[in-house]
Amino acid sequence: MSATESASTPALPFLHAIKVVAEDIDFMGHVNNARYLNWVQDAVLAHWRGIAPAEDVASKAWVALKHEITYRKPAFLEDDVIAQTVLERFNGARAFYSTLIKRGEDVLAEVQSSWCCIDAETLRPARIGDHLREFFFPKGE
């Protein structure tokens, strides 16, 4: 399968725990909407660092290209929140993620985002190697 094709085996969801702290709360008493984007970034980067081989983690970095977010319910101080992120596909230097921000079974926000992989040294776009497909889209057991 080439990098331009969609994955036939879906990626496994990656769970990233989030602790809501006082700095996240806005004047209305709930988490500021902008903070959700930080959480998505934290989850996507944790996913990359936790699954990609060390040499790829060291030589590549990520920049966000686009976020589309739908807010469903507010989060509050000391809520236990999880970012459940799934790599949908990658193509060339771009990766496409779907992330749910959840408190228990409640979906607080849904986020579709696209990211550009860059070379950590030159800061120029870097193709996501096909060798990474096996790490992010494992074959069924």
Provide the fold topology:
Layout: E1 14-19, H1 33-51, H2 54-59, E2 60-71, E3 80-91, E4 94-103, E5 106-119, H3 133-136
Antiparallel strand pairs: 1-3, 2-5, 3-4, 4-5
Quick take:
With 141 residues, this protein is an alpha+beta fold. It is 21% helix and 38% strand.
Q: Specify the helix fraction band.
A: 10-25%
**Overall pLDDT score:** 91
Rough outline: elongated
The low-confidence parts are 1-7
Which strand order do you get reading across the main beta sheet?
1-3-4-5-2
Structural class: alpha+beta
Q: Span between N and C termini?
A: 19 Å
Order of helices and strands: EHHEEEEH
Radius of gyration: 16 Å
Question: Mind summarizing the main beta sheet?
Answer: 5 strands, antiparallel
**Strand residue percentage:** 35-45%
Count of strand segments: 5
Number of helices: 3
Describe the structure.
This protein is of the alpha+beta class. The chain contains 3 helices and 5 strands. It has helices spanning 33-51, 54-59, 133-136, and strands at residues 14-19, 60-71, 80-91, 94-103, 106-119. A hairpin with a 2-residue loop joins strand 3 (80-91) and strand 4 (94-103). The longest helix is centred in the N-terminal third of the chain and has 19 residues, at 33-51. The model is unreliable at 1-7 (pLDDT under 50).
Fill in the keyword field for this structure.
alpha+beta, 3 helices, 5 strands, disordered N terminus
